[in-house]
Amino acid sequence: MAATRIVVVESPAKAKTINRYLGSDYAVIASFGHVRDLPPKDGSVRPDENFAMSWQTDERGSKQIATIAKALKGAKQLILATDPDREGEAISWHVRSALAEKNLLKNIDVQRVTFNEITKNAITAAMAAPRPLDQPLIDAYLARRALDYLVGFTLSPVLWRKLPGSRSAGRVQSVALRLICEREAEIEVFKPREYWSIEGAFTTPEQALFKARLTHFNGKKLEQFDLPDETHALEARQAVENTAFHIKKIERKRSKRNPAPPFTTSTLQQEASRKLGMSAQVTMRTAQQLYEGVDLHGETVGLITYMRTDGVTMAREAIDMIRSHIHESFGDRYCPTSPRAYATKAKNAQEAHEAVRPTDVRRTPDQVAPALSHDQRRLYELIWKRAVASQMQSAEIDQTAVVLAGQDNKTMLRATGSIIAFDGFLKLYMEGRDDSQTDDDQNRLLPPMKEGDPLTTKAVTADQHFTQPPPRYSEASLVKKMEEIGIGRPSTYASILGVLRDRNYVRLDSRRFIPEDRGRLVTAFLTSFFERYVDTGFTASLEEQLDDISGGRADWHDIMKAFWHDFSATVDKTKDLKISDVIDALDHDLGNHFFPLHEDGSDPRRCPSCETGRLGLRLGKHGAFLGCSNYPECRVTRPLTISEGEGPSLAEGVKSLGHDPKTGEEITLRRGPYGLYVQKGEPDPDNKKIKPKRATIPKNRPSDDVSLEEAIGLLSLPRSLGTHPDTGEMIEAGLGRFGPYVKMGSIYGTLGKDEDVLTIGMPQAIEALAKKLASIRTLGVHPKDQETIIVRKGRFGPYVQHGSTVATLPKDQKMEDVTLEEAITLLEEKGKPLKGKTSKTTRSKKTPKKESATKEKPAPKAKSRKKKEAS
To answer: Which class is 265-393 in CATH?
Structure first.
């Protein structure tokens, strides 16, 4: 019997989970995300037509719409159950619109449902409370999509024309890039300042040792730079050594430390970066898996609530369960008398959804760990502990400060210490530290003492310090900064950071963002000629206007008109912009970066060749470079950085890394049309078919410091890791077109982009293969060639595979039920070459057709030439 209610969700994993909770009247289908998008070409958004948009359905989207349309035959209701946010609302709108355009919704009741967690109770409650599509949310999506399209497709061509070598510009990504570049500029101009501190070691009458720091000298309270050099420091040290000290005052107080609220998207990304070393993209991908569900005892269960949120509240039912768990697991003392309530401090926060929390606190990290991958296990534990700790009692800390003084009270020192009187939530969870937090001396315990006690001075040290520049942004601190100033949204942070890296505007070094010269040039250009549109205040105010649209307080067309009027006028002003104007602006902003002052005081811009010319920034068709002002008489040029494709030690695009210790062949770093790679040896001039060994540099790898050892390792890929403990088959690790992978026979397991294929170990490899093996079943060997036949899950259903031949299973047959004999029959009757692989037979059959077609074409070509000559 066909289902009468069709439910559309975003992902297959979610569809599988929800299918278990609904009856036979329902059929759950995945849209695989958006089924339509704006075509990447001019005219997709038309400001002159009140910002009308043209939508395009790609091949995958068309297939999903066709699948939904087929399921709707005989159905009475279409339930749109995509994610509970603006993007989810937009996906539902696209599905409905695409079906309506085909006149497929006649007599179909269309409803929208949302749920914050994929549990039976949540799904049942959602199905019982359908609603219409939220038009203000859809309008907010249309406005954002139109804005991003118009900025990208209007600003990027200006960049390409006026700043060759640049990639693109984006509404929010350019502001994030500016933050990174401005921080780097601060670091470059930072001048360290020297200061000293004095610390003494003292003993009490009971011979207990402790340390104290000098705070007053010659009757004056010391500020940071009051001891600016060694002379002043030694004078102060001598005064401490020559003074007899006693305990002047002891201050004791008890303070409380409250737990942090449960996670929002932003704080989850920050904490996962600080504590787990996960990138924002890995964090969100892993959280998505936990939200959509994992297999627990044969049932797919969603472990966390929706992970794209800026709300810090939790459902009362969840709070009650957490408080009950605290009572049972930690005791009554650890549970406050009343539940804790939180409010977000983030600018422009919507708080439309709950915080990120476990769907059921009774599923402890230890209980679900066997069903989770390494990253899933760590992230779930982080989310679970943070949520539980948020409802626990405050920690109580006894703090003690002791003032040491000489007889005249002109020289004083201070010792501080603390002890945890009651650990409270710290028993379970302590928040990670960010750049603004530093360790201090309140982590030490002071010995017993009382006022008036005489002290014995043991040793006094003078320590030199220098002020430090502001730290470069990490993923955690950049996300925190973006959230504080109100640019971007929880669902966009990961993609923004990913785009900056993918376009080689920035690189990560020791988990810190460093802007590439390409990124600094783009930022300098935009701040010079489009300053308003990379201003954090303007971008944040635009976010507020977009939020007004989603709240139904503003019309999106009005906001778009106001934006486009000013933006298009600014773009028009650049039409007459001369390259010399661009060079002058960039040289003004980045001159000190490219030409830092020499220690000997000589002019850093003086041409080393002609000695009369001045080096400056130049723009060529392939990008920016440094050149002499006496061109063309003096042709001295210097490339910028290796990330620009012409590194400082890459002569003609080649940099020698050394020689292979085994073969003696030179190993070089080179740039090709698709990026950097390493090469061993040179082509054989006598035999062009023999090509030297090459290996691509991974995209996430900083390419400017590739060592000879790393190059040899990359050239030796794939590398053997050993045999699988269960199957006995060899496992290899390699680097493919789409990143690092592990391989066992014909089974490939994908590794994360941040995984180092040269150091990946057997545990990670087995874990990656296990994910793939879960969707593959081995049937046996083919009697003709003894090659293995397998059945595996595909994007559009299960299929059997024998070598490079595949055959799709009938729709009513499950992969668990197919036999070896049935598979062989299917392969013989319906077998097709695996996509991307063509057999020799197929190629030989096509060749004559190409030859015959070629022979038939000369006459028409001659005819066309005559027509052209006549015209």
So the answer is: mainly alpha
Q: Can you say how many angstroms the Cα of residue 18 is from the centroid of all Cα atoms in its chain?
A: 28
Query: What is the residue-wise DSSP string for 482-514?
Result: HHHHT-S-TTTHHHHHHHHHHTTSEEEETTEEE
Longest dimension (CA), the chain: 115
What whole-number distance in Å separates Cα of residue 424 and Cα of residue 256?
10
Architecture of domain 194-258+396-466: Distorted Sandwich (2.70)
3-state secondary structure of 716: coil
CA-derived radius of gyration, the chain? 33
Per annotation, catalytic residue among 26, 306, 334, 473? 306
Contacts made by residues 334-342, CB under 8 angstroms, sequence distance 24+: 334/392, 334/393, 334/424, 334/425, 334/427, 335/391, 335/392, 335/393, 336/391, 336/392, 336/393, 336/394, 339/391, 340/259, 340/390, 340/391, 341/313, 342/261, 342/262, 342/312, 342/313, 342/390
Q: Is the pTM of this model over 0.70?
A: no
**What is the H or E stretch that residue 814 is in?**
none
Which residue from 543, 635, 525, 512 is spatially nearest to 586, judged by alpha carbons?
525
Q: Supply φ then ψ for residue 475, to 5 degrees.
A: -60, -40
CA separation for the pair 51, 143 (Å, rounded) = 9
**What is residue 592's predicted lDDT score, i.e. its pLDDT?**
80
Other Cβ atoms closer than 10 A to 415: 23
Place of tokens 């490939």: 748
Q: Residue 252: which H helix or E strand, with range? A: strand 246-257
Q: What is the distance of C-alpha 554 from the center of its chain?
A: 32
pLDDT at 513: 93
Among 184, 551, 102, 160, smallest CA distance to 349 is for 551
- Cα(709)–Cα(703) distance, rounded to whole angstroms? 14
Q: Retrieve residue 679's tokens.
A: 């090469």
Q: How far lies 861's CA from each of 32, 176, 449, 854, 866, in Å?
A: 47, 55, 105, 11, 9
Give residue 754's pLDDT: 66
pLDDT at position 860, please? 44
Q: Token pair 């476990």 is at which residue?
A: 358
3-state SS of 20-70 is HHCCCCEEEEECCCCCCECCCCCCCEEHHHCCEECCECCHHHHHHHHHHHH
Question: Per CATH, which fold does 143-190+471-579 belong to?
Answer: Topoisomerase I; domain 2 (1.10.460)
Nearest CA-CA partner of 348 in 182, 536, 526, 498:
536
Q: Which residues contact 286 (CB under 8 A, 6 or more apart)?
A: 278, 375, 376, 379
**Cα torsion angle, 234, 235, 237, 238, sign:** positive
- Tell me the residue type at 57: T
In order along the chain (871 residues), what is the average pLDDT of each group of 10 residues?
Answer: 83 81 87 87 90 90 90 91 89 94 91 89 90 93 92 85 77 92 92 95 94 95 95 96 95 92 93 90 91 84 89 90 95 94 67 83 94 94 96 94 93 92 92 53 73 94 95 91 85 84 86 89 91 91 90 93 93 85 83 77 80 80 76 74 38 67 84 74 75 80 70 88 81 83 82 76 81 77 82 80 86 81 86 59 40 40 39 34
- Token pair for residue 479? 């996300």
Active site residue 631: no
Amino acid letter, residue 671: R
Residue extents of the structural domains in the chain: 5-133, 143-190+471-579, 194-258+396-466, 265-393, 595-643, 654-715, 840-870
Tell which residue, 524, 671, 656, 653, has the closest CA to residue 594: 524
Quickly name the fold that domain 5-133 has. Rossmann fold (3.40.50)
DSSP 470: P
Closest CA to 85 of 129, 37, 144, 127: 144
